[in-house]
Specification:
It is a single chain. This protein is an all-beta fold and 95 residues long. It has a domain at 23-88. The chain contains no helices and eight strands. It has strands spanning 2-7, 10-15, 32-35, 44-48, 61-63, 68-70, 76-80, 86-88. The strands form three sheets. It has a four-stranded antiparallel beta sheet with strand order 3-8-5-6, with no helix packed on it. Strand 1 and strand 2 (10-15) form a beta hairpin.
Amino acid sequence: GKYSVEIGSNMFEFYNAELAPPAGIAGKNYSWAIHHEAHPHRYSVSWTISRSPDTPDRCHFFLARYGFCIHQAPNTLIVWIPSEAHRTSLPDACP
C-alpha cells in the first residue's frame, strides 16, 4: 500500500512500508528518565496528531546531547536517534 504525509507544500509518499499500529504510550502520564535505546534502525519518529487537553505545561521531549526541549503541540513530528540520550516529562496536572 501507500502512505502519504503532506508537510507544507511537500508531499512525502511511502510505498510497501509496514506501519506500526497506532499507539498512545506517551498519551497519559508517561515519563522516563534520560536514557538511550538500541534499535535495528537509526532513527525513531513520533507524530503527535492531537493534544487534549491542549495545555502548554510539560509532557515535552528532550534531546540531552543538544540541550533541546521540544514542546508538544498538535501536529508535531519529532525524529531522533534513539541511541542518543533523550527523555520525556510528566504533565503539570493533579490526578
